[in-house]
Design brief:
The structure holds three protein chains of three kinds. Chain B is mostly helical. Chain B has helices at residues 19-50, 52-62, 65-92, 105-129; strands at residues 97-98, 101-102. Chain B is flat. Chain C has one domain (7-20, 48-115): Fumarate reductase/succinate dehydrogenase, transmembrane subunit (3 helical TM bundles of succinate and fumarate reductases, Up-down Bundle), CATH 1.20.1300. Chain C is elongated. The chains are: A alpha+beta, B mainly alpha, C mainly alpha.
Chain lengths: 249, 132, 117
Amino acid sequence: MPSPRTIAIECLRYDPETDGAPRRQTYEVPFTDEMSVLQGLQYIKDHLDGSLTFRWSCRMAVCGSCGMMLNGVPALSCATFLRDYHPGGVRVDPLTHFPIVRDLVIDQDDFLRKLSSVKPYVIADKPRSVEEGPYRQTPAQMDDYYQYAQCINCLLCYAACPQYGLTPEFTGPAALALLHRYNADSRDGGRSERMQVINAEAGVWGCTLVGYCSQVCPKGVDPARAINQNKINSTKDYFRHWLMPWKSR
Amino acid sequence: MDATRTYVRPMRGWWRHNPYYRAYIVREMSALFVALYALVLLTGLFRLSQGRAAYDGWRAGLATPWAVAFHVIAFAFIAYHAWTWFAVMPKTLPFVRVGGRRVDDRTIITAGAVAAVCAELVLFALVWWTRP
Amino acid sequence: MKRSNKPIFWSLFGAGGTLAALVGPMLVLITGVLVPLGLLLPADTMSFERMRAFAQNGFGKATIFVVITLLLFHGFHRLYHCLHDFGVHVGPGLKAAFHGCAIAGTAATVFLLARIA
C-alpha cells in the first residue's frame, strides 16, 4: 500500500510556565483530501504531541471556536483544508492582536467585555406581553439586520483588523457589527443607549475602513459595512447634539 | 482568567507581508499627493496675488521635467484614490432599495465610477471650450 | 465614554475625498501636465490674465476655495491617520499640527482670494 502523503504543519508553541517567548515546532502529518487543518491538528495531538493546545468544537463553522492564522491569514481551521496547503505546508499561529495564553489559544476577555458594552440584546421598543402574541416583522425588516446576526464571535475580524492591533481600546468589528444588528432590528428601541459606544473615539471612529475584516469573515457579516454606516449616524448625532441640544437622545 | 503570563506580539511591520494590507497602505498614502497638489494650487494662488512676474515664474516652474513628473505620479495616485473611494463607498451607505429590492454593491460602485468619469469629462470639456 | 470630535474632520475628509475622486485626476492632468506642456490645451489656458479674472470672479473664487480647502482637509486628515498606521504615537499635538496645516491653508486661501480683488 503506498505511503500516504504528508504535509508539514508548523505550529507556534508557547508555554507560559517555561517559555519567555513563543517558538515554532513542525510536524509531518499524513493527510487525505477531505482532512481539514483542524483534523491535522487533532492528528498531531492524538498521535504526535499531546501537549499541543488549541480550541475547537463543532467542526462545522458554526461555533466560532477554532479561529487561527493559517499562513498569516485569519481562518477557521475546521473550514480550511490541508490539500490547499500542499506541498508548501501550513504555518499555524494563534489569532493576531490577542495575547497568547498557550500555544494556539488566545485571551478573549477584551472582546467579551466589549461585547457586553454594546448591549447585544433586543431592548424592546414596544414591549409585548405573552398574551399579545409574538413581535412581527416583514421580510424587508428582517433583511435590514439578518446578515449582522450571523456573527459566530470567531474573532477572525479582530485578527484582521490592524486598528484593533494598533489601538486595543477600539471596540472592534464584531462588537460594532452586533451593536448595529440590534439597532437595525425593528423590534429594538435601544439606539440611544448604544449611541455612547458608537460616538466614542474607540467606537466607530477607530475604524479606517481597511475592510479586511469583511474579507475574512466566514459568515458574510460584513462588519466594515456595519461600522461605516454608523459613521453617518454618529455624525448626525454629533451635529444634532451641538446644534439642537434640547433634542439630545 | 488568572494572570497567566500571556504573550503580546508586536505590531511592527504589520502591513508588509499581506497584499491586502499593502494595497490599503498605498490607498492611504494617496492622500500625500492630494495634500501636495492642494499646496501646489495654494502656491499658485499666492503667486497670482503677487502679480504677473511672480505668477509667470510659478507657471514656468510647472513646465519643468520635475514638476511634470510629480504631476504624472500624483495623477496615478489620485486616480487610485478615486477608484478605491468608490470601491468602499457601498460600505458607508445604508442598504439602498429600489422597488423593494436591495441594490447590490457592484451597481453602486459602477454608478460612482460612471459619475466620476462623466465629471472628469465635463471638466475637460468646460476647459476645452473656454480655451484661449 | 467621551464623545469623539471626529465627525467634523470626517465630514471634511469625506467631502474632500469625494471631490478628489470626482475631479481630482482630471484637474491634476490639466493643471500639471496638459497645460504646462501645451498638450491638447494651449499653455495660455492658465495665463495670468485668465487666472486673475477667474480669481476675481465670484464663481472662480468659490471654486478655488472649495478645491484647495477640501483637498487640504482630506489629505492632512488621512496623512495623520497614516502616521498612526505606521506605528507613530499620535498625541493631541500631532493631531493639532496636521489639522492645523489644513486650517492654516484654508485661512491663507481666504486671505489671498480677498487680496485678489
